[in-house]
Amino acid sequence: MKINRDNLSRKDIFLLNSFGEDVLNLIEDDEVNEVYVNHDYYVWKDTIYGRVKTDILLKESTVRSICEAIAGVNDDIISETKPELGVELVNLEIRAQLVYPPISRRPIFFLRKKPAKVYTLEDYKSSGSLSEAYYDVIVKLIKERKNVVVAGATGSGKTTFLNAILCKLSEVSPEHRLLLLEDLPELKSTSKDVQRLTVSGNKSTKISMQDLVFIAMRMSPHRIIVGEVRNQAAYDMLKAWNTGHEGGFCTIHANSTENTFLRLESLVRESPQVNDTEMARTFIGASINAVISIQKKVSDTGTIRLIDDIILVHGYNSSTKQFEFTHL
């Protein structure tokens, strides 16, 4: 989608011009989620269908100009003496990571866009990323208001896939009121009754994800959706899911469905309300109904995303000290 420049600042417009036509075309392409360069300065793009090296080759001077313009939007600098900078380009809905020597051999940038296009579960199915059997399972989980964790590594496409789930949720339960809780506004929902709460716009007042969960529970939601759970807010989220707000979804950084338990346990244990490991595991086992794993897989044609595993969680067995679950 063409970026509307009418309400942009002069610094934003200067940055867009710095990208050059080829890179800007990728940024404005709704199919593209990430744009970046490695030290050879060929531009890469990432979509739901995989990661592709383009034939666009940039000069080092162009890369430096782009990096300096990105830093300038936030009144910051990037240089060999300050060789790392993460920037939120709020008006452009882009998250940028800049790296300079000596951390990297040459200046590089990595841009992650807020998804412009909402892919559906049907899109994932038609692309080969989601099997027919797993599609049916996910629709059933939505209909039955199960609490579901979407797990995957960094860049695996967890948020994009969660948006596909939210799209189906709006079809299955159009009357449900949704509260979307996020660090940054990345989730998209077509539901009629939806409210978004974010941490990013509240830094001056030090609002946390835990605060957002507490606020959400007082706003009468049918479902609470968390963009990414990454700290002791996991306890508060699971507590909300387990006390009348079932049917929630969240994403988490974990390499597999089974590793999700270890990750959740470490996060829940951060809460001062959780006294020991046994309490944490019992609580998790009682609150989570399913885990969906999305992974990046390397194929002959490049990198693709694949829903590679779904488990149904039956609880935690205190006698065997094991979570009980079934791989589907």
UniProtKB/TrEMBL annotation:
Residues 106-283 form the Bacterial type II secretion system protein E domain. SUPFAM superfamilies: P-loop containing nucleoside triphosphate hydrolases. Pfam families: T2SSE. Gene3D superfamilies: 3.30.450.90, P-loop containing nucleotide triphosphate hydrolases (3.40.50.300). GO terms for molecular function: ATP hydrolysis activity. InterPro entries: P-loop_NTPase, T2SS/T4SS_dom, T4SS_GSP_E_ATPase. Belongs to the GSP E family. This is Bacterial type II secretion system protein E domain-containing protein. It comes from Veillonella seminalis ACS-216-V-Col6b.
